Amino acid sequence: MALEAYKQKRSFKKTSEPTGGKSASEKLIFVVQKHHASHLHYDFRLEMKGVLKSWAVPKGPSMVEGEKHLAILVEDHPYDYKDFEGKIPKGNYGAGTVIVWDNGTYEPVEKAKTKKEKEHLLLKGFYSGSLAFKLHGKKLKGVFSLKKDVKQGENGWSLTKEEDSYTLSTDITEKDESVVSGETIEELEGVNKASAIVIPMQSKEARRDVPNFLEQAKEAEAQQEFKSAEKLYKQHLNKHPIDEFAYNRLMIIYRKQKMYKDELAIINRAIKALEDFYAKRAQKRVGKNNKIKTLSNNLIKSLGLADKKGNALYEPEPLPTWKKRKAVALKKLHK
Known about the structure:
By secondary structure, the chain is an alpha+beta fold.
């Protein structure tokens, strides 16, 4: 039953893709396949309970610490798919060229002795939406995590390289050859890599739907209507989850919003120093009595440094500078 979706999508009279397979090893395996279909992406697969749990990763895995890449959960694949390398004929599901970009063994971060115990921990994490594991591959090594990301739709996850001694600062996907044949996608396709044609990120069917959400999202972003743009990008990604352009624009919006929030957090922390400063000044003038807090609050409000509820807004600098800092903070969202 676990492979029912996989088999329904394929005609095995027309494709050489495997239909089954069984592990004879006590070690769990993983495989990452580079797949040049209607768009170029990487298929990240982990062995669990006799099948390969699979995610499509548009940008591929990263060895940079903390870098999150979108991973879309797809149907389970058979165990023997770990060795599949070649061409899926046109007219078939996933038509295109596949190479085994990396492979090896893996294990959960939590300690477990037997394969059964390891699979139990991994499946528990999978169904709870948070997996942590160690890869022992030829290219990918160390601790990684896969976490469910509801912002990316029903099947959206994030693949992240966690902190350890294996982290790199370079792009691991630049090592683009197969670990089985030593060939690249282009060599397997018989295409000169230097003159290879870049395949559009979306299929014809997906492009027909683009004006519904993607064009509207780009227009909203251009008009600095970031909340609307965020919503439209999400709607587009729900239909076309492996659209790298839309995903990247959404991440840029998130980063801009975080910068804005960080700036306001700095301002709000600084105002605490302002309150302390005026409280001490009032204390020196009036002495220790109930008027201290009132004097301090009134002074802050009279200078326009608090909202109607009395919450402090700006830093303890000359007034023109406070206004300038606020303007800078607001503009950060619109860059």
